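Marked as duplicate of an earlier ticket. Keeping the data here for the record.
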Amino acid sequence: MPAVIDMMKEVAIPKEQRNLESGVHLELGEQRDVVLTKFVSTDPKRACWAPEGEWEDEVTVDVGGGRRSVRIGVRKPDGELRSVNIDDGLIIRLYGTMSRIVGMLPGQPPMDEAAVEAYIDQTEKQVPLFQQWDFRVKWVKKTNGPEARFALHKSEDQKRQQSQTDLFEALKQMFQSLPV
């Protein structure tokens, strides 16, 4: 089940404190569905670190696989769900908690402890173990990211045009100073 973000439901704050440049928090409601799963090896030779407690991450786009697997989405005006993209100007904080230890083999889904033990009994081969971290949406900030990016591109275009104008003026002065 995807986390659906309503970009119109801002947390109630006084207008003088509302600042899209630094971001305005959005109300999330009761959705706490897992939107992302990461696996960290328990073998110290494979992983140089192991998260403890709560693992936080920030994204600005959906972590799913496109149209078919929307994990963090917004509703279009027609009611259809679409993935969050960079042009929405959202900063999404995810928090992860370790849910279990799983065994993983190439081409196989994660195996629980009973399946790992059964595999070891049958094949007498070890199964690499991983921590499974499940991530949920902690908070969402709406920013003026798309407008700021547009303004940045606009100012870059203006700088480029000004430098071209300066070059043409310098060339014009150089040619006028040459004897005829």
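See parent ticket for discussion. The mean pLDDT is 85.
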